[in-house]
């Protein structure tokens, strides 16, 4: 297999980092690589906040659910969906700009995710480790206030970057047969059952036999409660009205 595919298949979330800093030159190159990602209609509906203030990083770590590595990693980035820049640019051409459309929210969110994944792959190609931090959506208003985010911009997730201080195993993924379907959607319960067995074995080996779980059971906390019910109201208040 070629080196790019091998790199992609070797991804692990890194949560322990050395003290080695990430240089500004390297960080800028990673952002340039991120900008090369596909973007809907060339809108480029994203902004990235490099959080360097130590106090703010500690605060974000707490707001994200006590994820201490937000404060200790070599660099911490917040990836923001940004419809402020493109709508204002269009407005300066005297266009009658319509804001708050659901499609604008989708475009900005997808653009941001694509851009961030390019950054992640580029970082790993340089020997860095990364960890996405979706926990900033636990308290999105506080994070927005801390970072001075204006209307029509919202924080989608953070990303820890740094030189790894550990090398965890690659976590198994669903079998490709469950994901790749031909012509029509097909039932994948057999593949899910097989994957549950795989994940049970993985947790047994990783946790010294102390974790009795599998993929399906790990999903329970995500779906048996209303996850982050504040997000809709928050997005509407930021100008993403989902009209």
Descriptive overview:
A four-stranded antiparallel beta sheet has the order 1-2-4-3, with helices on both faces. The model has no long low-confidence stretch (mean pLDDT 96). Helix 2 packs across helix 6. It is 45% helix and 12% strand. The protein is globular and about 60 Å long. By secondary structure, the protein is an alpha+beta fold. The protein folds into two domains: 178 residues, NADH Oxidase (3-Layer(aba) Sandwich); 42 residues, no CATH class. GO terms for molecular function: FMN reductase (NADPH) activity. Its EC number is 1.5.1.38. This is Oxygen-insensitive NADPH nitroreductase. InterPro entries: Flavin_OxRdtase_Frp, Nitroreductase, Nitroreductase-like.
Q: How many strands, what sense, and barrel or not for the largest sheet?
A: 4 strands, antiparallel
* DSSP summary, beta strand count: 4
Strand order of the largest sheet: 1-2-4-3
Number of helical segments?
A: 12
Oligomerization state: single chain
Q: Tell me the CATH superfamily of the largest domain.
A: NADH Oxidase
> Mind telling me which CATH architecture of the largest domain this is?
3-Layer(aba) Sandwich
The number of domains is 2
Strand-pairing-aware structural class? alpha+beta
pLDDT under 50 segments (min length 5)? none
Mean pLDDT: 96
Distance between the termini: 46 Å
Could you outline the blueprint of secondary structure elements for this entry?
Layout: H1 3-9, H2 24-35, E1 46-51, H3 54-63, H4 69-72, E2 75-82, H5 84-91, H6 102-125, E3 129-133, H7 140-147, E4 153-162, H8 176-179, H9 189-206, H10 215-218, H11 220-223, H12 231-237
Antiparallel strand pairs: 1-2, 2-4, 3-4
Helix pairs in contact: 2-6
């Amino acid at each position: 297999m070629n080196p790019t595919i091998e790199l992609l298949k070797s991804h692990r979330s890194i949560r322990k980092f050395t003290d080695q800093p990430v240089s500004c030159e390297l960080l800028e190159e990673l952002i340039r690589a991120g900008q090369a990602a596909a973007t809907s209609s060339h809108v480029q509906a994203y902004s990235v906040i490099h959080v360097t203030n130590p106090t703010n990083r500690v605060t974000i770590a707490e707001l994200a659910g006590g994820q201490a590595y937000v404060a200790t990693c070599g660099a911490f980035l917040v990836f923001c969906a940004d419809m402020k820049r493109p709508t204002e640019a269009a407005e300066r051409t005297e266009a009658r700009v319509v804001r708050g459309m659901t499609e604008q929210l989708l475009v900005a969110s997808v653009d941001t995710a694509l851009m961030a994944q390019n950054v992640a792959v580029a970082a790993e190609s340089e020997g860095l480790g990364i960890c996405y931090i979706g926990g900033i959506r636990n308290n999105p208003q506080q994070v927005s206030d801390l970072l001075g985010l204006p209307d029509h911009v919202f924080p989608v997730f953070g990303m820890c970057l740094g030189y790894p201080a550990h090398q965890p195993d690659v976590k198994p993924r669903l079998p490709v047969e469950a994901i790749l379907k031909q012509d029509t959607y097909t039932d994948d319960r057999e593949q899910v059952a097989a994957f549950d067995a795989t994940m049970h074995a993985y947790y047994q080996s990783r946790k010294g036999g102390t974790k009795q779980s599998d993929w399906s059971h790990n999903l329970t906390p995500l779906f048996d409660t209303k996850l982050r019910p504040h997000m809709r109201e928050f997005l509407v208040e930021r100008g993403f009205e989902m009209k």
